[in-house]
Amino acid sequence: MLVPMQTRTLGRTGIEVSALGFGCWAIGGEWWDAGGGPLGWGKVDDEESVRAVHRALDDGVTFFDTADVYGTGHSETVLGRALAGRRDDVVIATKWGNTFDADRRTTISRDLTPGYARRALTASLRRLGTDRVDLYQLHIGDADPEAAVALREACEELVREGLIRAYAWSTDDPARAALFAEGLHCAAVQHQLNVLEDAPEMLALCAELNLASVNRGPLAMGLLSGKYDAGAHVGAGDIRSAPPPWLKYFGPDGRMAPGWLPRIEAIRDILTSEGRTLAQGALAWIWARSPHTVPIPGFRTVAQAEQNAGALAAGPLTAEQLAEVEGLLR
Question: What is the CATH number of domain 7-329?
Answer without folding.
Answer: 3.20.20.100
